[in-house]
Amino acid sequence: MAEIAIEPGGLGASPNGASHNYLENTGKHKGILAWILSTDHKRIGILYMISIFTFFAVGVSLGFLMRLEMLVPGPQGKIFDAQQYNALFTLHGVIMMFMFVIPGIPATLGNFFLPIQIGAKDVAFPRINLLSWYLYVTGAIIVLCSLFWRGLPDTGWTFYVPYSIRTATNVTLAVFGVFVLGFSSILTGLNFLTTIHRMRAPGMSWFRMPLFVWALYANGWIQVIATPVLAITLLLIAIERVFHVGIFNPALGGDPVLYQHLFWIYSHPAVYIMILPPMGVVSEIVATFSHRTIFGYKMVAMSSLAIAFIGYLVWGHHMFVAGETQTAQFVFSLLTFLVAIPSGIKVFNWVATMYKGSIDLQPPFLFLMAFIILFSIGGLTGLILGSLATDVHLTGTYFVVGHFHYIIFGGGVFIFFGALHYWLPKMFGRMYNKKVANWALGILFVGFNMLYFPMLLLGYEGMPRRYFTYLPKYELLQHISMVGSWVLITGLIIMFWNLIRGIFKGEKCGANPWGGTTLEWSIPSIPPTENFEHVPVVTHEPYYHPEAEPGFVAEPVPVAK
Amino acid sequence: MESTESNIIVEGHSGEDKQEPISYGLYVVVWLGLIALTSLTAVVAGFNFAAFTLVIALLIALTKASLVVNYFMHVKFEDKIFKVFLAIAGFTICVIFLLTFSDVYFRR
User: Fold this and answer.
1) What is the distance in angstroms between the Cα of B82 and the nearest Cα belonging to chain A?
2) What pLDDT is attached to residue B1?
3) Pairwise CB contact (< 8 Å): B12 & A198
4) With contact defined as beta carbons under 8 Å apart, do A126 and A39 qualify?
5) Rounded percentage of chain A residues whose pLDDT exceeds 70
6) Which residue ranges make up each domain of chain A?
7) How far is the C-alpha of B41 from the C-alpha of A556, rounded, in Å?
8) What pLDDT does A555 receive?
9) pLDDT at position A147, please?
10) What ipTM does this complex have?
11) Which residues on neighbouring strands pair with residue A507, listed in sequence order?
């Protein structure tokens, strides 16, 4: 089987070594303009990365303050009063959801690596790509303005009616900001879908695409089809608030449960927007560090599509106690359990890939191991919430909060961190300190479980979510959880310090520090502006390791005399 | 390991820029059709079809929408892939309606 023809210096280097990398400025603009007016997908990816992690830092700080609020039980001696606490959890939710995890991996690493992984020079619509970033920043600024103008929003990130219509706080502006953010998401999705359909390199057939690309493909579909539902819902809230048209408000003849339907028709698929791209990254990392082709490639690819599809059909499980009919409860509970099938396919195939692989325990792989453990806890607690009888007991408690963070933070964000450890050396040509990275992961893992596992127990014992106070009997677990947040933040600081230091001062690494087989590893580290000097021709599947094939004969190793 | 003897891609690249121009006559006919259907909507609004009122109104609307999408938005003359995209979006919205009604319809 033929290899990709890799020239000395990689596919991206020109023979005389004259090509520029994307960090060198070759455009007509200078300074910051060379970045914020660039249509290069790599630069846009980095713009997103800077903005997203800035908001992540804000979101983490708010989360830290929420935990600190639990220092003492009872309503006395609190740092924040009830209203301020409401604002804290609303902002924490809105910032983390709409500004961090939803754009998350696709907007940053997806933007950077999708065109490279399919052998293209850029995405299909580079200017729309830049427009998406501007929409993202505009939406984010609008949401943050709602902070300082006429009081803080206090509805929770779900903006549930009728409260969100009745409250005097600044919901309309926050909702409008989320609306703009939604458009950024739709355009990114559309861009990726078109790129994948139209711009694959010769020979890059559907089943030769890396699984990260497959995940982004499924993800693009969700963004394009589901996000408009959110946009419409948010517009309806605004119309109801401004013009007093009865849509959701029962006092005006509306239906509050209809709001929850519309909200979750978007927001449940959005959970898959948050988790599908990380699953794609997992497939990349597991294949690279096991030095094997992925087990059941087609099934893993198809399971992404299946998750995207079934993700549309389960939203009603957020409303089991919200006044939904028993018929709907039964239908949605049944459908919910179906998601376990494609998710199970993925987890088993990843583990099967490791079996008899030549595993290399590098930091990205260790993040993956942490992911599998945390995501499994998240998934199993999800089954508890998905079944009707137990959900009635647990809904609206810390159990939901714990489950949710295990999925999104333990699942999605841990892999985001793993992906940074995997791809940053490619993006900046320098390697971080691996030992520090491993320590950071250890601290993160301990801190994470200290913070969120007590929440599962607290919820089981009946501690409601979104309360600024608690009964003395919950004190011990609340304190463990609070200390966990300190440990977690310590881990985050060490990890980010190590990564940023690595970007600027790390040791230089070659084109392929991990032995990856997908196209991005065939170009130089710090990719050239045009990605590929020559259009690559793909002749085999993405995770082709000739040394793992039966009958492979290794070159004789020279022996010292 | 899976077979890799799959097709070389570049779907949808054929047929591009080679579309036959659509005659003004056809556009006028479609436009007249839309006007006729609008009139039909206005006329049937005068009759009491009880439970079927909504169904009839939606059927007419659907016919009109498909005319617009197929002719004015050129989907009829496009590559298969665009039709598939549209079908998936349409299918999804039907499913969303169906499941929402599994709640609303049974609510008493």
Assistant:
1) 11
2) 36
3) yes
4) yes
5) 93
6) 38-546
7) 82
8) 59
9) 65
10) 0.72
11) A431
The whole-number pLDDT of residue A553 equals 67
CA distance A470 to A447: 22
Partner-chain residue, chosen from A206, A261, A328, that has the shortest CB–CB distance to B106: A328
Nearest by CB to residue A197, choosing from B12, B92, B95, is B12
Of A397, A394, A385, the closest CA to residue A464 belongs to A397
The phi and psi torsions of A507 (rounded to 5 degrees) equal -65, 145
- One domain for residues B30 and B69: yes
Q: Are A162 and A250 in contact (CB under 8 A)?
A: yes
Query: What's the token pair of residue A545?
Result: 């390791």
Q: Is the residue at B17 inside a domain?
A: no
Domain hosting B57: range is 23-76
Helix (H, G, I), strand (E, B) or coil at A388: helix
Look at B7 and A327 and tell me if their CB atoms are within 8 Å: no
Q: Is the pLDDT of residue A405 over 80?
A: yes
C-alpha closest to that of B102 among A228, A321, A314, A388: A314
pLDDT at A168: 67
Q: State which amino acid sits at residue A236.
A: L
Asked if B44 and B31 sit in the same domain, the reply is yes
Distance in angstroms (rounded) separating the CA atoms of residues A13 and A19 = 6
Mean pLDDT value across residues A34-59 = 94
Which of B13, B81, B85, B99 would best serve as a mutation to test chain A binding (most A beta carbons within 10 A)? B99
Q: What secondary structure, in 3-state letters, does A79-129 show?
A: CCCHHHHHHHHHHHHHHHHHHHHCCHHHHHHHHHHHHHHCCCCCCCCHHHH
pLDDT band of A350, cuts 50, 70, 90 = very high
- CATH number (3.30.70.1450, 1.10.3210.10, 1.20.210.10, 1.10.10.10) of A38-546 reads 1.20.210.10
A332/B99 CB distance under 8 A: yes
pLDDT < 70: residue spans in chain B: 1-20, 108
Q: From residue A372, give the alpha-carbon distance in Å to each of A198, A278, B90.
A: 34, 11, 36
Summarize the confidence of residues A8-28 as an average pLDDT: 62
A195-199, A343-347, A484-488, A551-555, range with the lowest pLDDT = A551-555
Q: Answer yes or no: are the C-beta atoms of A296 and A365 closer than 8 Å.
A: no
> What pLDDT, on the 0 to 100 scale, is given for residue A9?
41
Q: What is the predicted pLDDT for the residue at A556? A: 57
A387-395's contacts with Cβ under 8 Å and 24+ in sequence apart are A387/A333, A388/A320, A388/A329, A388/A330, A388/A333, A391/A317, A391/A320, A391/A321, A392/A320, A392/A321, A394/A459, A394/A460, A395/A320, A395/A321
Are B35 and B72 within one domain?
Answer: yes
Q: Let me know whether B31 and B54 are in one domain.
A: yes
Average pLDDT, chain A: 88
Neighbours of A533 (CB within 10 A): 19
pLDDT at A126 > cutoff 60:
yes
Q: Mention every residue, 6+ apart, whose C-beta is less than 8 A from residue A306.
A: A341, A342
CA distance B13 to B17: 9
Check residue B108 and give its pLDDT.
61
Q: Does A225 touch chain B (CB under 8 A)?
A: yes
Q: Do residues A314 and A342 make contact, with C-beta atoms less than 8 angstroms apart?
A: no
Q: Which pLDDT belongs to residue A3?
A: 40
Q: Are the C-beta atoms of A490 and A446 separated by less than 8 Å? A: no
Amino acid identity at A201: A
Phi/psi at A37 (5° precision) = -110, 5
Whether B60 maps to a domain, the answer reads yes
Residue at token pair 């801190």? A447
Residue A257 near chain B (CB below 8 Å): yes
Residue B55 falls inside a structural domain: yes
